[in-house]
Amino acid sequence: MYRSPSSLLPPGFTSKALGLLQRLQQGRSAFELVYTPHEHWPYRPGHTHTGKSPPVPHISVLDSSFNPPTLAHLALAKSRPPSPRGTTDHDVTTSEEIDYDAGLLLLSVRNAEKSLVSGDATYVQRLEMMYLLSLDISNNVAVAIIDQPIFVGKSTILHTFFQSRLASLHIPLAAGMETIHRPKLTFLMGFDTLVRLFSPKYYASEEEMTRLLRRFISPDGQDCYIVCARRVNVTIDKEVEKRALDAFKEFVDRERIYFINIGEDEQTFSSTDVRATVAAGRDNWRRLVTDLIANYIAENKLYTSNAM
Q1: What DSSP string runs through 217-268?
Q2: Is the pTM of this model over 0.85?
Q3: Three-state SS for 113?
Q4: Chain mean position to CA 87
């Protein structure tokens, strides 16, 4: 029996998303949680704390434009953490390593390279699709928005938020309990995003880029990890790609950046292809997205010539 994707949204989701989006756009906030699966997120459902040291959750962060979410997004979001043995290539579909404690689907309302254009899904529509995507990932995935285009800045905002949130989940602290530790963040991204992350044009200088990225990734800095999906059919200027490869080699060697395969088909999928195929009036775009996302796009007439 067909169910409208909109009927699957939590009560009040759309109005809440719109209100939080307006807070960001008015400069009253830099980060907002739009949806959490339970009140103790990012801890696992049913989490109870018994020791003196609160557990340190490992959170995957998939930051994207989600215009729309594709099966490539889904495969990356469902990938498991890199092997602790330090291998830089593993099959995410057969890995038996422990999973992330929580996932975060993150939408940036200020993108370093992309801005809203006519025919795009609105930010609220993207947030609705992100929620629908979360239903196919796990039972501990949240949806959020952030007003920061650069990953180093995003990490700073997220660390501040999570330290505050984790502390609030442990108030009052049990007698003898140690300080709440910041969570471990692993950013999930495609190769094109990784190249942009290491592109000097988004920083004041190449030296500033190196300083900020070392702070972002190094253990004595923000201690973040990057998991990058290999992609094909991604057009990147060869000179830009070469400079980026040289720049992030040291972090690959230090096992702070890992490369994974997300599937032979999935690695070819892109949001751009979905939008272009829908606009061309062809139906084969449905194979690039989940059924829920496909039905949402059709129901809301997204990416068609008369969409906006």
Answers
A1: HSTTTT--EEEEE--SS----HHHHHHHHHHHHHHHHTTSEEEEB--TTGGG
A2: yes
A3: coil
A4: 22
